[in-house]
Amino acid sequence: MLSKAYIPYKGYYSTPFCRWQGSLANENSIVLGANTAARWFKEKGWDPKMLDYLILGITIGQHHVFYGSPWAAAMMGADHIPGVMISQACTTGTTCIYNAAVSVETGMYQLPFVLTTDRCSNGPHTVWPNPMGPGGQVDSENWLMDNFNYDPWGGTAMIQTAENVAKEAGITREQCDELTLRRYEQYKMALENDRAFQKQYMFPAEVKISKKKTLLIEEDEGIYETTAEGLAALRPVIPDGVHTFGSQTHPADGNCGIIVSTEEKAKELSADPSVTIQVISYGYARTEKAHMAKAVVPAVKMALEKAGISINDAKVIKTHNPFAVNDLYMSKQFGIGWENINNYGCPMIFGHPQGPTATRCIIEGIEETVMLGGGYFVWGGCAAGDTAGAMVIKVS
Questions:
Q1: Whole-number Å distance between alpha carbons of 14 and 195
Q2: Between the CA atoms of 138, 139, 140 and 144, what dihedral angle is there, to the nearest 10 degrees?
Q3: What string of DSSP letters covers 121-177?
Q4: H-helix or E-strand containing 34?
Q5: Per-residue pLDDT averaged across 239-257, rounded?
Q6: How high is the pLDDT of residue 210?
Q7: Tens digit of pLDDT for each residue in 97-143?
Q8: Where are the domains of the chain?
Q9: Burial class (CB in 10 A: 0-12, 13-18, 19+), 56
Q10: How much is the average pLDDT of 145-160?
Q11: Residue 51 pLDDT > 80, yes or no?
C-alpha cells in the first residue's frame, strides 16, 4: 500500500483516440506525444523544467525509439531530465503510473511525468537475419497483425484466449452482444451536453498537413454506431465463437500524459486543492496460458487486498476490455453487475492504442469519481498473452 504518491486534479490529459489508419496514422508517436505534452504544459502555464523524471510508456517501435524517453523529454521542453521506457502491452499505462508512484514514495523523484503514446497504424515491419534460412532468407514480422494473431507462449491468437475463457465460463454470444450495446450507450454518456465529460480531460492532438495547414483532432475518430440489430447480424470472428468484430476492440492511435507527485506538489498544481487523488495500490497476475481475460480477476484482487478494501467499496470500476468476455467474466467472479462499470467509455468502443489505453481509462475513472463526490476507484485490465495489471486510487 502506498501513502505518499498523489496526482494533481486536472494534472492529466488524453488526446482523442483515432481509429487505425486514420488521422494520426503517419505521425511518429514519440514526436506527437512529446509535442502534445509541450502544448498542454504551455496551456496550463506550467514550465516543464519543474519535472525531475520522465517515464515513457510505448509498445510499438518508432523511428529513433532507442532514444525514446530523453528525446521525448527534450521535445517537451524538459531537456534537463533523463527517463526510462516501459512496455507492458495493454496495461503499460498502469505500470508507468505505478512506477512513478513508487519513485515518489521512496523519495527518488518529487515530480515525475508519465507520457504514454502509441501508433498502431503503419506499424513496423521488422526483418530479422536468418543465416540458416534457405538461401539466407530473412525472417520477418508484421508488428501488429503477427502479434495480435499469435502468442508464441500461448500458441494462439488473442481472440482465441477470449473464446477459451468464454467456453470455460459458459458465456454466450447473446451476453456478449448485450454487454457491447451497453458499453456503446455508456460511451454516448460522455458525448452528452456537447461532450461535457470528455472536455474535462481531453486535449486535442495537432497534426501538420503541410507547412501552412494544421489539423486539430478534438474528438475520437472512427466510433461505430452500434445497435442490437447490427450486432446480431455480425458473424463470429471464429466459427462457433461468441465474439464478432462488434464485441471486441480495434487498434487505434493516441497519447496521454499524467503527473504523479508528492501531496504538497499535487495541491500546488491542482485545479482544485480540495480534491485529493492518491495512488493507493497496484496488483498484477498471470493465469494459465491462452486465458488472458481471466488474469484481470487475480490482479484486481491483489490491488484490493493491498488497499485493504473489497470490490464493493469501489465507487467507480473501469477495465480494459478488448473482448466482451473480459467484463462478463470479471463481473461473474466478483459477483457484481456489469451494467454500470465502464461508464463514459472503454477501449471496446473508443479503441486501443496499447500504451495510452490504460492511462485514458484511469483518467476517466478519476474524473467520474470526482463527479460522484469521491471514493475508491478500481481499475483492472489484461495485457499480452495471459497477464494483467490493476490499481486502486482514492479520491477525497
A1: 14
A2: -170
A3: TT--EEEE--TTSGGGPPEEEEHHHHHHH--TTT-S-HHHHHHHHHHHHT--HHHHH
A4: helix 29-44
A5: 97
A6: 81
A7: 999 999 999 999 999 999 999 999 999 999 988 888 887 789 999 98
A8: 12-124+204-220+249-269, 158-194+275-395
A9: buried
A10: 93
A11: yes
Q: What integer is the mean pLDDT of 185-205?
A: 98
What b-and-e string marks burial along 355-377, b requiring 16 or more CB atoms within 10 Å of the CB?
bbbbbbbbbbbbbbbbeeeeebb
Whole-number Å distance between alpha carbons of 97 and 12: 12
Model pLDDT, residue 131: 85
Which three-class secondary structure state does DSSP give residue 285? strand
Q: Give the pLDDT band of residue 44 (cuts 50, 70, 90).
A: very high
Residue 228 has pLDDT above 90, yes or no: yes
Confidence of residue 144 (pLDDT cuts 50, 70, 90): confident
Place of cell 466478483: 334
Amino acid at 336: I
Closest CA to 282 of 113, 86, 99, 8: 99
Cβ–Cβ < 8 Å for 103, 372: no
277-286 and 314-320 as β-strands: parallel, antiparallel, unpaired?
unpaired
Which amino acid is present at 323?
F
Compute the mean pLDDT over every residue in the chain, rounded to the nearest whole number: 96
Q: How far apart are the first and last CA of the chain?
A: 17
The reply to whether 12-124+204-220+249-269 and 158-194+275-395 are identical in fold is yes
Region of 227 (left: φ > 0; alpha: ψ -120 to 50; beta: rest) is: beta
pTM above 0.90, yes or no: yes
Tell me, what DSSP letter sits at residue 261?
Answer: B
Hey, CA dihedral for 200, 251, 322, 349, is it positive or negative? positive
**Architecture of the CATH domain 12-124+204-220+249-269:** 3-Layer(aba) Sandwich (3.40)
Among the listed residues 8, 255, 1, 256, the one whose alpha carbon sits nearest the alpha carbon of residue 110:
8
Tell me the CATH architecture of domain 158-194+275-395.
Answer: 3-Layer(aba) Sandwich (3.40)
Query: Nearest CA to 94 among 363, 367, 369, 370?
Result: 363
Q: Are 170 and 177 in contact (CB under 8 A)?
A: no
